[in-house]
Amino acid sequence: MTNERTYHHGDLRRAVLTAALDVIRTEGPGALSLRDLARRAGVSHAAPAHHFKDRTGLLTAIAAEGYTLFADALADAPDLRERGVRYVRFATDHPAHFQVMFQPDLHRTDDPELLAAKARATTELRAGVTDLPTAGRGDDTRLAGLAAWSLAHGFATLLLSGNLSGPVGSQDPEEVFRSVTGLLFRPDIAHQEQPASSSPPRKRS
Is residue 15 a contact partner of residue 9, using CB atoms and an 8 Å limit? Predict the structure, then answer.
């Protein structure tokens, strides 16, 4: 007889998601097993399939939830720099989601819920670039967006993988990121008039 708690768990879907996030955080997505997650959630081994169908379905749900949380984190940021700071903060607050979201081979990329959440997050990311003065982003907003995304994502990834322990040390990573963006994105430097050539004048023959 099937254990009654399989179908009367308070919130089976949430319990399985929480257990999955714990595994990903400590062991990575490759360690996920629906049978193991069922054991952790205290339900029968078949119960998770009622909500997620299979492992890919579970990872897709995690990615969709991650993009929703990500969009919420970026919303109403006052400028592009603060969007970057919130990007880094999201990665440190939700490392398991962050690991799954940007690995499309792990989930069903055509899932409607995932597509909707990803589109909303993309809109929030682009808003920071389009709000920049032209002098700060140039004429190509897509290229400026790629530069900003690369900086924030690269910093967050290096931070989570422990590669910034030396440069960041005991400092607040968010403040370090603000300093980095201040060095690289200064319109007064990037777009100032180029100095005249310092080469010595040619001698007249």
Answer: yes
